[in-house]
Each structure stands twice: as structure tokens, then as C-alpha cells.
Design goal:
The chain is built from 6 helices and no strands. Helix content is 58%, strand content 0%. It is an all-alpha fold. The protein has a single domain, classed as Cytochrome c-like domain (Cytochrome Bc1 Complex, Chain D, domain 2, Orthogonal Bundle). α3 packs across α6 and α4 packs antiparallel against α6.
């Protein structure tokens, strides 16, 4: 496929819009995207696997405290501290709320 001078800028504009924050991306859709990172290890329902702890269904405040502790370095882990450092306070609250509602 050959992309001409008009096609490339248009392609870049369209694909970059996928990463822009929109009203719908701020709500449940955004937290689902963030939760996808968690699901890689903790499973789609936060059920955990072997040495990976369950986070689905835990109390929202407990999840939030763990995330804050990982972010601050008070709690250590092989990977969670690195993930948590990348989240804002709002994102951590959204993730805690999301996973607390899992059964």
C-alpha cells in the first residue's frame, strides 16, 4: 500500500486521536484500559494466579492503600512498585473501585 503526502498526515491524525483523552475515555472505558495492565498478571476478574494475589473483590480502600504503598516504596514488589509509580491518584482510585466490584 502506497501512502501519499496527504495520506500520511491523515493517517497520523486519525491514529493519534485514538490516544487523546475524550469524555468517554475518562470514565469506565479508561479504567478498563488501565485494568488491562493489571489483568495480565492478576487475571481478567482480578482472581490472581498461584503467587499472584487476588485483587478482585477486595475492599476498595485496601486496594487503594496497596497501590499508594507500592507507589511510595513503602511496599515492595518485583513489578507492582513500577506499575503504581505510573498511576495518578485518580487512576489508582478508579482501579481500586473497578476491582473492588469484581466477584
Amino acid at each position: 500500500m502506497r501512502i501519499n503526502r496527504v495520506g500520511l498526515p491523515l493517517l497520523l491524525l486519525l491514529t493519534s486521536s485514538l490516544f487523546m483523552t475524550t469524555p468517554s475515555a475518562n470514565g469506565i472505558e479508561r479504567v478498563k484500559i488501565l485494568a488491562g495492565n493489571c489483568s495480565t498478571c492478576h487475571g481478567p476478574q482480578g482472581q490472581g494466579y498461584e503467587v499472584i494475589p487476588r485483587i478482585g473483590g477486595l475492599d476498595k480502600d485496601d486496594i487503594l492503600k496497596l497501590l499508594k504503598d507500592f507507589k511510595s516504596g513503602e511496599e515492595t514488589s518485583t513489578i507492582m512498585d513500577r506499575h503504581a509509580k505510573g498511576y495518578t491518584q485518580q487512576e489508582m482510585e478508579q482501579l481500586a473501585d473497578y476491582f473492588s466490584k469484581m466477584e
